């Protein structure tokens, strides 16, 4: 880094640098959470497997399709904004946000089902992590929907790169959580 | 000095340094009580000295922050402070409150009185009238600095500094929330204690460091600001939910253990960023600032904060570890190096930078000041090691083998004796620091042939004159 120009590799990132700081921080948090989950799982594989059977795998599978599709629509919105098609961008952003809402509805139904079975955060270590990780992720989906709305309201290329990067992060985290929490035997 | 109202900082710094001397002297007394348990047990019991030691630390650090704000805001906003009178009124209230606290603690007056009695919550023992006074002083301060910033130029440094100072003041309001339920009492207590030092104080520290780097290294403001935002973002991201590492054994729900583990582990990131920031700025620097002592304190601050707050904090933050180490000398080791590295050093850095200007002296190399850095920091690092070893032995004997508390304390005597020795070094270092910024008017070590030659040939080189 002895070059005299202050151009750094960070300047080449699409969107705002602060968003990338946030994304890396979030990935560290969810990564650490998953690592802790797997570490505790080693101490009680049978208990974790039994607890996991209470989860609704099909619902979570549907949610995966929903969120990945939403990510695709958000990416289309970025392309639309880059080529100046603001109306098309807004339709895509609205559809992406709507799928985000679908995700939350499915998630809420899942939590309601758990509540009906009187499963709480202290029922088993598995559920402590289940609620923490999926709940924290769901909170990010809510934030992401707000951010997509902001991008639609202020459709600039920089805003789109920054906001949609967040949405892809939410997407990515779910794709990591889903197999480890719902499927791993 | 470009702006007359920067002079306010001088009085704040002087009061802060006087309290600093009191604080470390009380620390030395306590260090000796650890060596001889009956020392002063009748006239100045350990619990009273501890209250005075911790409270005076917080007060002088805050006075230093206020002084720093009064020093750097006029320069950053490019205008005089809104009001000088209010600034001195604020100081008078704080000094009166401090005097009230000392008298109340020492003589245990007004026991049980709602308004005048001490409250008995660790670190927030202040009687309610003093707490109210602190709020009034904080309001005056916030009004004064906010009016100044609103009228003047807004920079990242002023924004972050103000965010930190506003957060600091608002969070103090939780000191009034004291539910009868002990778990809730502790929970709100941490809203002040943790969210100060692992949240908003970091913003104040980062802003002061950024100001110093800007002045000492001459790096572009744009570069400094980018770093500042990254530091602040990572500090808040990790620090706020990092509060969870205090919610392990106080009765809050179990999931806090994992929230605390994950987020507080990341609290090391902003401290690493601050250390990288300081060194990268010096590396990229294009100014040969004569105040080398201020640069030494700034770099020392960033490094010791990384070790004291970052490494020593991480050491016992995971709940599986903390289950054994909670409340042992490990905590004392972390507390000492973290407060020293992060907040004592940043205050001494800005004081070292500002004092020659405030006293109307040419910036000079300040060899005595640098000597005080090594004496004080060396003492504090040694103290941290002795307490860490003491804490390790204590954890094993008391928590693993199950020996009795006092029996274990006897086993730790050798560490306490060494800690007392390092305490002497810290007190001497502190006194030397105060002497070096207040008294000498010129350099006491004359430059050798190489430095003299460089001074003659290189017009940009102004060090050590």
What does this structure look like?
The complex is a heterodimer of chains A (185) and B (465). Chain A has 185 residues and is mainly alpha-helical. Chain A has a domain at 58-183: Four Helix Bundle (Hemerythrin (Met), subunit A) (Up-down Bundle). In chain A, 80% of the residues lie in helices and 0% in strands. Chain A has helices at 17-43, 45-52, 57-82, 86-116, 125-153, 157-183. Chain A is globular, with a radius of gyration of 19 Å. The model of chain A has no long low-confidence stretch (mean pLDDT 94). Helices cover 75% and strands 0% of the residues of chain B. Chain B is globular. By secondary structure, chain B is an all-alpha fold. Chain B has a domain at 1-153. The chains are: A mainly alpha (185), B mainly alpha (465).
Which overall shape of chain A is indicated by the principal axes computed on the Cα atoms?
globular
CATH level-3 fold name of the domain at 58-183 in chain A: Four Helix Bundle (Hemerythrin (Met), subunit A)
Largest sheet of chain B: none
Q: Please report the number of helical segments of chain A.
A: 6
Percent in strands of chain B: under 5%
Largest sheet of chain A: none
Give the quaternary arrangement of the chains: heterodimer
Number of helices of chain B: 16
Total strands of chain A: 0
Average pLDDT confidence of chain A is 94
Spell out the blueprint of helices and strands:
The complex is a heterodimer of chains A (185) and B (465).
Chain A: H1 17-43, H2 45-52, H3 57-82, H4 86-116, H5 125-153, H6 157-183
Chain B: H1 8-35, H2 46-77, H3 84-107, H4 128-151, H5 156-172, H6 182-217, H7 221-242, H8 255-265, H9 268-284, H10 292-315, H11 319-325, H12 329-358, H13 367-400, H14 405-411, H15 413-438, H16 449-457
Quick overview:
Chain A is mostly helical and 185 residues long. Chain A has 6 helices and no strands.
List keywords for this structure.
heterodimer, A: 185 residues, mainly alpha, Four Helix Bundle (Hemerythrin (Met), subunit A), globular, B: 465 residues, 16 helices, 0% strand
């Amino acid at each position: 880094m002895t070059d005299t120009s202050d151009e750094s590799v960070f300047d080449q990132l699409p969107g705002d640098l602060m968003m990338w700081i946030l994304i890396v921080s979030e990935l560290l948090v969810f990564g650490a959470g998953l690592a802790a989950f797997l570490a505790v799982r080693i101490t009680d594989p049978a208990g974790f497997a039994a607890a996991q059977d209470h989860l609704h795998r099909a619902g979570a599978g549907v949610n995966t399709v929903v969120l990945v599709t939403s990510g695709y629509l958000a990416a289309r919105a970025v392309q639309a904004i880059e080529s100046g098609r603001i109306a098309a961008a807004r339709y895509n952003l609205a559809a992406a946000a709507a799928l985000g809402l679908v995700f939350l509805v499915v998630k809420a139904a899942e939590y309601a089902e758990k509540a009906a079975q009187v499963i709480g955060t202290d029922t088993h270590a598995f559920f402590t992590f289940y609620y923490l990780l999926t709940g924290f992720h769901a909170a990010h989906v809510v934030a992401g929907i707000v951010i997509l709305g902001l991008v639609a309201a202020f459709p600039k290329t920089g805003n789109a790169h920054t906001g949609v990067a967040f949405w892809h992060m939410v997407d990515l985290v779910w794709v990591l959580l889903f197999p480890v929490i719902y499927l791993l035997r | 000095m470009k702006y007359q109202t920067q002079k306010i900082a001088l009085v704040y710094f002087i009061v802060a340094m006087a309290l600093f001397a009191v604080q470390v002297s009380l620390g030395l007394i306590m260090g000796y009580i650890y060596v001889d348990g009956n020392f002063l047990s009748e006239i100045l019991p350990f619990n009273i000295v501890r209250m005075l030691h911790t409270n005076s630390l917080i007060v002088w650090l805050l006075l230093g922050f206020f002084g720093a704000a009064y020093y750097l805001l006029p320069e950053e906003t490019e205008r005089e402070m809104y009001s000088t009178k209010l600034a001195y009124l604020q100081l008078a209230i704080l000094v009166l409150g401090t005097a009230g606290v000392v008298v109340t603690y020492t003589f245990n007056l007004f026991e049980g009185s709602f308004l005048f009695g001490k409250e008995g919550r660790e670190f927030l023992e202040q009687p309610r009238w003093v707490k109210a006074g602190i709020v009034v002083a904080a309001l005056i301060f916030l009004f004064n600095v906010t009016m100044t910033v609103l009228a003047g130029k807004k920079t990242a440094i002023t924004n972050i500094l103000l965010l930190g100072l506003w957060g600091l003041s608002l969070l103090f309001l939780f000191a009034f929330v004291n539910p009868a339920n002990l778990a809730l009492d502790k929970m709100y207590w941490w809203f002040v204690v943790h969210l100060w030092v692992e949240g908003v104080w970091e913003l104040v520290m980062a802003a002061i460091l950024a100001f110093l780097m800007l002045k000492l290294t001459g790096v572009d403001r744009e570069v400094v600001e980018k770093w500042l935002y990254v530091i602040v973002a990572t500090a808040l991201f990790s620090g706020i939910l990092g509060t969870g590492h205090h919610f392990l054994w106080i009765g809050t729900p179990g999931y806090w253990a994992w929230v605390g583990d994950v987020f507080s582990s990341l609290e090391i990131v902003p401290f690493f960023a601050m250390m990288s920031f300081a060194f990268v700025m010096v590396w990229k620097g294009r100014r040969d600032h004569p105040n080398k002592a201020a640069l030494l304190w700034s770099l020392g601050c960033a490094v010791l904060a990384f070790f004291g707050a970052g490494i020593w904090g991480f050491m016992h933050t995971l709940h599986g570890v903390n289950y054994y180490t909670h409340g042992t000398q490990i905590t004392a080791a972390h507390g000492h190096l973290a407060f020293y590295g992060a907040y004592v050093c940043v205050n001494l850095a800005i004081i070292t930078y500002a004092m020659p200007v405030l006293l109307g002296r040419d910036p000079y190399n300040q060899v005595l000041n640098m000597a005080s850095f090594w004496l004080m920091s060396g003492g504090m690092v040694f103290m941290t090691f002795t307490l860490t070893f003491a804490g390790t032995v204590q954890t094993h004997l008391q928590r693993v083998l199950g020996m009795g508390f006092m029996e274990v304390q006897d086993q730790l005597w050798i560490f306490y004796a060494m800690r007392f020795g390092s305490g002497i070094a810290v007190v001497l270092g502190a006194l030397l620091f105060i002497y070096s910024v207040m008294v000498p008017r010129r350099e006491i070590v004359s430059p050798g042939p190489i430095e003299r030659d460089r001074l003659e040939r290189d017009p940009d080189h102004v060090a050590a004159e």
